Amino acid sequence: GFLNYYDACSEGLRAASPLLKFGGPGDSFHPLPKSPICWSLLCHCYNGTNFFTGETGVRLDYISLHKKGGGSSLYILQQEIAAVEQIQKLFPGLASVAVYNDEADPMVGWSLPQPWRADVTYAAMVVKVIAQHQNLLLAKANNTINYTLLSNDNAFLSYHPHYFTQRTLTARFQMNNTRPPHVQMVRKPVLTVMGLLALLGEKQVFAEVKTSESESTHNGTIGVLASVHTPDERQPSDSWQAALLMYSSDDNRTSSSISTVTVNATHFPRLREMVYVTYYLDNNQTNPYQKWRKMGSPDFPSPEQFQQIRDAEDPVTAGPFPVPEGGVLTLKQDFPIPAVFLIHVCARPRAVPDQVCAV
Fold it and tell me: Which residue from 93, 134, 348, 350 lies 20 to 30 Å from 269 (Cα-Cα)?
């Protein structure tokens, strides 16, 4: 029944538009004999019979799986690699198919209240998971996995009394003490950090973390992801940009220890009027949850209290500052656990943006 349903969806979407992508199964892919639906679908798409066309094999534009961390960041990647290696072994013809993990969450159970889901701990862990995939998988020359998409299952609305501590991007307050009742949303650090991720460019460039022992590591408490954006020549208002995104994360744990990090960024192109801005998140300065708790955790914050809570939503921002003439940017930053730090560098564009029209 499920395989016929898959064939029906495939053919219906193909009839609607050949441009539409279709795949699956969006499940756990535990090792055999577990997850029978997952493995049966791959077998069907590999050499089964299409219920509607009678052809051998059914299209599979991507393989979607769900691998979560159980509180660990690296465990997500380890499970993905193990599952895809098993897929490539059993179905070598699917080795080049795109792989999606569209539920790469640090822990199962969206509604389970966890204090670390409320603050920068969760935000830093999201950055860490992405950086691990880029540095430990996609940047490797011998990588055989067509890893195409990583996302989180976090489109939920929190409910009383766990406003901040569920797996959500915002804290929802149902203001039932007003007439009419209404809803107030507070942005959590995990959503703020996704705004910082949007500043990354399309091309990853080399970056590494060296400890006091001069050892390079991509899996420590502190990590980095660097990228550049090359402007479109047809868009004179576009400009060259670089972003260095750093995190301090011990997964879902916090610590009172503070590390001082020296950032050395080199090899900037010779472009005019290069400037940089820094963005910083930690649990002391950018923690709406902490502000709310210090108020006594009110169910119905007043407008003044909401303003105080929201004052902690945005990252601490500094700049813009000019990039030194020699093209070497050196900064020092204290990193508690957790923390996120982004340096965004850009050159002056050739022209101002065009007038917005036809909105």
Answer: 134
